[in-house]
Amino acid sequence: MAKFVSLSFWITLTVYLALASPLAVGWIETWLAANVPVLGSPVANLLTSRFVAGVIWGSIALFIVAPGWRLLWKLPLAGPWLANRYFPDLNGDWVVTIQSNWPIVEHLKTAATSKEITFDPFTNDLPNLLDASFDVKIKQSWFRTDVVFLPNDKTPLLSSETISVEFFKSDSGKKSIAWIYEQTNKQDNTRRLAVTDQPKFHGSAVLIVSEDATELQGQYWQNRSWNHGLNAAGLITMKRTNK
Description:
Number of strands: 8
Number of helices: 6
Structural class: alpha+beta
């Protein structure tokens, strides 16, 4: 998010507001003296320029450091405009479906070690892609976004760690995400890794954000067992379950 509204913008805004605080204090004191005289003197003692500047700094810090910005993104009219003007709020739980080309890689591997079986991915019928599903939690702040895949009993995934998430917006307004991650697999006596797998590897994806920000769709690839020429890639679809 900070990519679209940089920290320098907030610092500049804060400086201008702080410089304008004496005018605001004077206006408030004049209005109170004319309309609510009983409050004029106590408020005048409280409303110093330093106090007002502190309130301004605190409000902006609450907005960008704490998730205060999300409140604006939820407003009926301003929220959709801000999401379109900058970037949607992607915080929440998602369900992910991955379609891997591993069956194609496996066919190539089998054909390479067999004298009877042949397989040419350009001329033979291709096997169906391999489906896998995960629950995912996205944590998006003003300065950082984490995409966390949660482990399940059907895959060797133990944990995933986000290395980088970059937001992009084209001239036409299309929004996309570039995501790089590191995955750690389970490896113990109860669940041994396949000989074609690795305990830890990196992957990345480019995802297109739907207009209503309820779906992210694109392609992914990884360096899992790349040294054996077995690294897979495929399609990935993320659908929001709640915010």
